[in-house]
Amino acid sequence: MKAQKRLVKRKARRGFRVRNRIRRDAHGRPRLSVFKSNHHIYAQIIDDSEGKTLVSASTVEASIAGAGKVAGNCEIAQTVGKVLGERAKEKGIVDVVFDRGSFRYHGRVAALAEAAREQGLRF
Which CATH number does the domain housing residue 31 bear? Predict the structure, then answer.
């Protein structure tokens, strides 16, 4: 039980540290926020000055992962990044700040980020 509490505290501390750095370095740019669960990955571009989501994509959408499929792999994360980049390009969004939250930058998070970069997002 104590080990689990330590892990939760470590994850919260990492998320707090990342978000503080993002607030400091944003300079008015929207934030590309990533959340992942064991089965799905979600990404959205948020304008923090207005508190509104500008663009979003996730594996919950049937057009991305397919209905009822488990979408917890890097290939699907790349697809989400690609779709998010295309939707952002349609809205005229180019510069963003990447918010990985409390997740490490590897695996699905890195795959999503690289796919978004390939579509023209700069962060």
Answer: 3.30.420.100
